[in-house]
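Changelog-linked ticket: S-adenosylmethionine example.
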Amino acid sequence: MKTIRNPRFFSLGIAALAFFLALPAGLYAGDAALDEKVKSFLARTAGTWYDMNVPEVDGRALYDLVVQNRYQKALEIGTSTGRSGIYIAWGLSKTGGRLITIEIDPSRHRQALANFKEAGLSEFIDARLADAHSLVKELPGPFDFVFCDADKDWYKNYFVDVLPKLTAGGRFAAHNVSGRRGWGTGEFYEYVTSLSSIETTLSRAPGSSLCVSLKKAK
Ligand SMILES: C[S@@+](CC[C@H](N)C(=O)[O-])C[C@H]1O[C@@H](n2cnc3c(N)ncnc32)[C@H](O)[C@@H]1O
């Protein structure tokens, strides 16, 4: 057998190997400058979220769900001023995805737009000023990740409207759900836990009130 001894071939081979090994890590890491911008925005604004925004623990959980499952087509119901949207969109910046987020209150919607811009995430977010009761029905989907955080007594309706547009392996995360006795969300919890195609878990992290429903593959 002939052995290739040319050092040029050898270094080219090493460079190609390094490139392919580094590729997945690079894709996962996303843009380091954007990371710094988002982190500094979140640090600067910690303790200043007064519009029913998620606590940091749930923001981080949303980010992790998106990144770990490589979700790309996300929907948020209830933007408020954008704290949860920032965590979701930050995750999507690493997966090549995009978020549609819906808010009915004009001044919260405006503030969310300003926050998305300041965090450097506007290009990953399509923020709609609309009534989610009708818009959720109208959006064609598909979605692989949904975060529901608007009017609690409508959660079951949102879920019913979204379920046919949720991909297998996709997740519907709902905030302020603490089981059957959850304020306004008990009916939603009863319903999702009655479906054999859905696997639902309640977060046990301190300070968290996240309920995550996975649409199982058929
Ligand atoms: C709990 S806050 C959302 C907090 C946000 N997810 C965050 O963590 O930053 C709920 C928001 O849902 C909005 N909302 C309530 N009913 C709505 C509806 N029918 N359509 C759209 N938004 C609605 C409220 O105006 C409010 O800003």
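Closing comment: Example verified and attached. Residues 52-54, 78-84, 102-105, 108, 131-133, 149-151 surround S-adenosylmethionine (CB under 6 Å). The radius of gyration is 20 Å.
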